[in-house]
Amino acid sequence: MATPPLPLTAVPWTPALADSLAEASAALARLDARVSASPLRAAWLLRASWAGYAAALTLQQSPVEEIDIIAERCALRLPGRALVRTEDEPFAAYEPWAALLTEPEGRHWSDGLPFTFDPPAGWREAPALVRALHLLDAAARADRTVAPWLAFPLTARRIGLTRTALPCMVPGDASQRFAIDPRPVLLRRLLKTVRKQAEDGLERLDRLEATARRTARAIAAEHRPGKLADLGRIALARPCLAARSLAPLTGLTVSGAGKLLERATTLGLLAEVSGRGSWRTYVAPDIAVSLGLRSAERGRPPSASAPAPEVEAILQSFDSEMAEIEERLRKLGIAVED
């Protein structure tokens, strides 16, 4: 009978491990604080869920990428993108997971573990982040599905690491399935992954907020904005659009929706990713950067001058009008993630 691997909570501490723990914990805390206070929290959580789900599928050796998940969730076929062909249903676990991410607080972190929990050596003294990584490590060996990877954001919130379930936080390592790497090496690698994912999540939030500010300024500067404000709000919940998908959400014809998308692209509110003359596809600028379809802006950002009254009004109405858009989506039978 194989000897059980050393629990991550019992790994001897070294200066390098302590540094990795401090960096990972700080990055996670910064992301949690920013997301909790951001007015674009709902839009970020949606985008973060796509990134986290893609990370989990990568750990399962799936060929599905984040761009495929975005296209599937936005019900679009991206031109030039081959259909995803796998032996299983790669998107089947997304909606149940998304529902769990929005569950009310109160469930204990041990609920749903795929193994019988007995406190391992060092559990009582271990930092909360190391405890969460130990639970991930044990679950990855007990359950070979995608579930252990996806459970980490929930575990982190339930164990008290974060106030919000952060969907982009899906650390893991394929070697965990077999416990073949030295445990200190594995723990340090997992801590580095936590730090990198938290930093990436913060960068995505910065890009999303910058996009929202730029959109508000551009709309306020237009003499006749028309449906541009509606489009800006829709793009928060559906950042991948085509004329045929936008038309029913705005009450425009397909031709009118196409002209609106072209106008928004000219103003820099969207980025075209199709390169085709028919059924053009557009994505929000922050999504284009995240997927490598567009380069991030370089240099010092423009100075944030005092917003015009029109900009202030647009920003203040975002939440209420987003609720109206979500209600339209529900009436059309389109799932809306909270």
Automatic annotation (TrEMBL):
Domain of life: Bacteria
Stated name of the protein: HTH DNA binding domain-containing protein
